[in-house]
Amino acid sequence: MDTIAAIATGMTDSGIGIVRISGSGAVEVGDGIVRSPSGRRILKKAESHRFYYGFVVNPGDGVEIDEVLAVVMRGPRSFTGEDTVEIQCHGGVLVMRRILECALRCGARLAEPGEFTKRAFLNGRMDLSRAEAVMDVIGAQNDRALGYSLGQLRGRLSGKVRELRGRLLYETAFIESALDDPEHFDLDGYGEGLSGKLDGVIEELRRLIGTADNGRLIKEGIRTVILGKPNVGKSSLLNCLLGEERAIVTDVAGTTRDVLEESLRLGDICLNIVDTAGIRDTEDTVERIGVERALRYAREADLIVYVTDASMELDENDREIVSVIGDKRTIVLLNKSDLEAVVTEEEIRALFVENEADPSGRERFVVLHTSAKEGAGIEELEQAVKEMFFHGEIGSSNEIVITSMRHKEALEEACAALMLVKGSIEDGMPEDFYSIDLMNAYKALGRIIGEEVDDDLVEEIFSKFCMGK
């Protein structure tokens, strides 16, 4: 492959920056721009995986650009599987760009987004699921998401997929061998035995599929929308959760006219919170647009935090909000608990008739007493979210958890194919029907690790990576 180069660290001033070069000419390019303190070329005969001190010089005029450490990693013992040179320089944006320009002048080309990891995949250094985990590690927003991503990067998911594929391939090979050589392979009663084996595989697939919803929530965060009438304490709640005055709080109804989006962590849970305009009938054009946006965001939410002022009577606006919430998972906050309460928990529950549990058996509707002004009830809110989405406990980061919709779809397709095999067995179909669907399941699982994917999908996946990775 040709030689590529890119800045591998963030494009902001920092203590250290890294320029990465990879490809068949990486050592030659590095040797062309790195010099020892005495001016000698030092990388062409450099030992692999050993740092060398020197200076980067402009190959055109020999002007020194920066004092650096450079390391040569000869393939296949490198991230990409190719010869790789990494130059550690001072982390100024200008310095990194000048070093990158020098590498490009010496014959490298600018790497495309994700091209280093793509080469690692194409060169067999990692499978596709592990390659995807690289960006998940970079983008992890909490410790639990980081743990799951590291587990996938270490190969926990791909190891399980390979194990399941191996079991399916064995049965397929047995059927094909028996059909080709019936004298030495007996298929009498084979279908019943195969059905029992497939039960175990299907159970494992369904367990993995069952982790996908929680996996997405832990990885991406819970889409949370704060709803309520004006002046009930929505913005005060947001400020309390964030620990800073992010939203404007006044006694004037309708202060919040547009949505305000923030992300925050509650322990191992990440909430992507949208603070919305107060829901009420209004003639104000701008405020009405804000209300419409609030309702739109509510329809797309994973969780509604419905804030009420416990010191004020419920009215038609509250009933309208409850009708908008529908069967969404909802935490109702009886806010301003520091004041004399007028609204009771029973009145709130009466608004949510028949909405207390969802089909999965998880509690869908919880009422809490809070005071956003005094910070009371926040720990109870965190626990309520855990109970509502994770049954109170978030699984160990050592578990295999599906965090990618692509992986979930492949697992579902494999499971459906195996159910077809069981159907064929029950219907007394010939054994060659089994092998067709067994191979379909085998191929579906192969898409997770990249053994059954086309070039377009590979390009799409790596195009989402950051530059230099």
| Measured distance between first and last alpha carbons | 17 Å
Strand arrangement within the widest β-sheet reads: 3-4-5-6-2-1-7
Main sheet overview:
7 strands, mixed
- Estimated share of beta-strand residues: 15-25%
- How do the helices and strands follow one another from N- to C-terminus? EEHEEEEHEHHHHHHEHEEHEHEHEHHHH
Shape: flat
The total of beta strands comes to 13
Looking at how many chains there are and whether they match, the oligomeric state comes to single chain
Secondary structural class: alpha/beta
- Radius of gyration, rounded? 29 Å
Average pLDDT confidence is 84
- Number of helices, counting only DSSP H or I runs of 4 residues or more: 16
Helix content: 40-55%
Unreliable residue stretches = 247-257, 354-362
How would you describe this structure to a colleague?
It is a single chain. The protein has 469 residues and is of the alpha/beta class. It has 16 helices and 13 strands. Strands 3-4-5-6-2-1-7 form a seven-stranded mixed beta sheet. Strands 9-10-8-11-12-13 form a six-stranded mixed beta sheet, with helices on both faces. Helix 1 crosses helix 2 (93-105). The radius of gyration is 29 Å and the shape is flat.
